[in-house]
Design goal:
The protein has helices spanning about 10, 30-35, 50-55, 65-70, 85-100, 100-115, 120-130, and strands at about 40, 60-65, 80. With about 140 residues, it is mostly helical. It has a three-stranded parallel sheet with strand order 1-2-3, with helices on both faces. The radius of gyration is 17 Å and the shape is globular.
């Protein structure tokens, strides 16, 4: 388990049934690269969760709470799986871990979503309309 300020309940899981609690790490990418999925059970979340986008960008199937999904805009069931309770989170995670093909498809859909919708160009596109700048026509390379 990687994440800033793990609760005492989470810390108590360290070395239980093969679980390791690392807490805060300097760079999340090596941990994500070694993971089979991202499980993001945030009870309190404010704004877009960059940790979710990072996991999705690394092709990880992502199971998360509604709060953690806030601001992402991905489709539940397609690019990520949103679960309401601890039991639903566990069930969704186990289901994905048991079906590696389905997990891989969700991970690829997650990455495609981030590449298409969570980049600077798409994030800043509405700004042009807000400030009244007309967009230039773009040509796609053939």
């Amino acid at each position: 388990i990687v994440g800033r300020k793990p609760s005492p309940e989470v810390i108590a899981l360290h070395e239980v049934n093969g679980c390791n609690v690392w807490g805060m790490v300097e760079d999340i990418r090596p941990w994500l690269k070694a993971a089979d999925m991202a499980l993001v059970p945030l009870n309190i979340a404010r704004g877009v969760q960059n940790k979710v986008l990072e996991a999705m960008a690394m092709c990880l199937p992502t199971v998360l709470t509604p709060g953690a999904a806030t601001g992402i805009g991905a489709n539940n069931g397609k690019q990520l799986v949103i679960a309401e309770s601890d039991e639903e989170l566990a069930h969704a995670a186990i289901k994905l871990l048991q079906d590696t093909r389905r997990a891989r498809i969700k991970g690829l859909a997650a990455r495609n979503f981030v590449c298409d919708h969570a980049n600077w160009q798409s994030a800043l596109a509405p700004l042009l309309d807000i400030v009244g700048v007309k967009r230039r026509a773009t040509r796609n390379a053939a």
